[in-house]
Amino acid sequence: xxxxxxxxxxxxxxxxxxxxxxxxxxxxxxxxxxxxxxxxxxxxxxxxxxxxxxxxxxxxxxxxxxxxxxxxxxxxxxxxxxxxxxxxxxxxxxxxxxxxxxxxxxxxxxxxxxxxxxxxxxxxxxxxxxxxxxxxxxxxxxxxxxxxxxxxxxxxxxxxxxxxxxxxxxxxxxxxxxxxx
Length: 181
Description:
Elements: H1 6-19, E1 44-47, E2 50-53, E3 64-67, E4 73-78, E5 86-91, E6 102-108, E7 116-123, E8 128-135, E9 141-148, E10 151-157, E11 166-170, E12 177-180
Antiparallel strand pairs: 1-12, 2-5, 3-4, 4-11, 5-10, 6-9, 6-12, 7-8, 7-10
């Protein structure tokens, strides 16, 4: 057992270590740090992407499979200015919607993710669309994007207003969206 003089110092050091895990994230949800795969629990949900080519204006292959620099399976597409050729949708089971606010973390692949992404997300009860922009070039791994309640759909397309760079996303629910409620 530590001496009584050392105990306050040890407790203060432990509190500081927990406080710097991730700003805005509880210590219970700190497991979704960096490049670890998403694992569901009672208050943690992992949402997989559904990818579709969107138009006749876009011949040929529009998105490509790869692994990021950490071996994480992913897909990517080129930024496409104003023409939408790829839509990535994250709809999920209504049973995991929460009336309380949740933290939404997106997996940004390390490599093939160098462009801005504009996410649209919809909330109940009136199907209100919200948007948030993320510059993938400035991030990698799990990245906190927004907090919201009653989100039922998240999506993005490749028509992000620029022809520079690539948009990347993790493949499957282990590297899609990590939602902490």
